[in-house]
Amino acid sequence: MVVAVYGLLRDGDRLLLMRRAGSGYHDGELCVPAGHVDGNEDVASALARELREELTIAVDPDACRLALVAHRAPETAGDHEYLDLFFEVPRWDGTPAIGEPAKCAELCWVDAADPPADTVAYVTAALHEVAAGTPLLRYGWAIG
């Protein structure tokens, strides 16, 4: 199982999304800033590192609050299952900018309550669960 962290940066009712590019994973789709947890780092520090790398901003890991845990089934036969941790990021230093142009084509502020249709499907599902106050999302599993 792979662990990934996601940052929810808001400006009022707007949410910051990034258009993925160049990675071969959901290229062309929108996603909140995210990345894998590396070895020898806690999840909040991993989030701060990812936001620094992807958006050139600084965040206090202790200020970020866990909003949702998502357990995702593998998307393809060769993929891993994921434990995704979505964090609210209440404040940051700097202005979000593309820090990894080979992996991101654009940044855009969108209506948090109505993500665009080209947002990665599991991210849209996660955003709806965060808005509903649901702490756990099971995605892609045959549940029932």
UniProtKB/TrEMBL annotation:
Keywords: Hydrolase. The keyword Hydrolase applies. One of its GO terms (molecular function) is hydrolase activity. PROSITE patterns: NUDIX, NUDIX_BOX. SUPFAM superfamilies: Nudix. Pfam families: NUDIX. InterPro entries: NUDIX_hydrolase-like_dom_sf, NUDIX_hydrolase_CS, NUDIX_hydrolase_dom. Gene3D superfamilies: Nucleoside Triphosphate Pyrophosphohydrolase. Residues 1-132 form the Nudix hydrolase domain. Belongs to the Nudix hydrolase family. This is Nudix hydrolase domain-containing protein. The lineage of its organism: Bacteria, Bacillati, Actinomycetota, Actinomycetes, Micromonosporales.
